[in-house]
Write a structure and sequence with these properties.
Elements lengths: L1 H7 L2 H13 L19 E5 L16 E5 H5 L11 H15 L7
Antiparallel strand pairs: 1-2
Length: 106
């Protein structure tokens, strides 16, 4: 959503992103591919716990890792997040936790 996208454009997040890339030595933490200097990098910084479900971990270094685009696409929280039942179950559980109400599944 818009608020989450705004976070990615902040100076603080861009600095943190660079710090994570440097920490991980510009290497995908799943497959080991490295970024190449002078070529647009296919490395991305992944939020292990989704920013949408766990906004409190958005800027937590321990919740961030470097992944290549192919490995990032394999994570549940990438673009297909609303299409996986497991992801929806996590959202429902999180909502129930904070509201103390039981969700009705359709």
């Amino acid at each position: 959503d818009r608020e989450n996208m705004e976070l990615l454009n902040t100076v603080e997040y861009r600095k943190l992103r660079l710090k994570i890339l440097q920490r991980d030595d510009y290497q995908c933490q799943k497959c080991g591919i490295r970024g190449k200097s002078g070529i647009r990098s296919k490395l991305q910084v992944d939020h292990i716990k989704s920013r949408m479900i766990f906004p409190e971990f958005s800027m937590d270094e321990n919740n961030l890792r470097t992944l290549c685009l192919d490995c990032h696409k394999q994570t549940e929280s990438f673009l297909n997040r609303w299409q996986t039942s497991r992801y929806c179950d996590v959202i429902i559980a999180r909502w129930e936790q904070f509201t103390n109400k039981k969700a009705i599944k359709l």
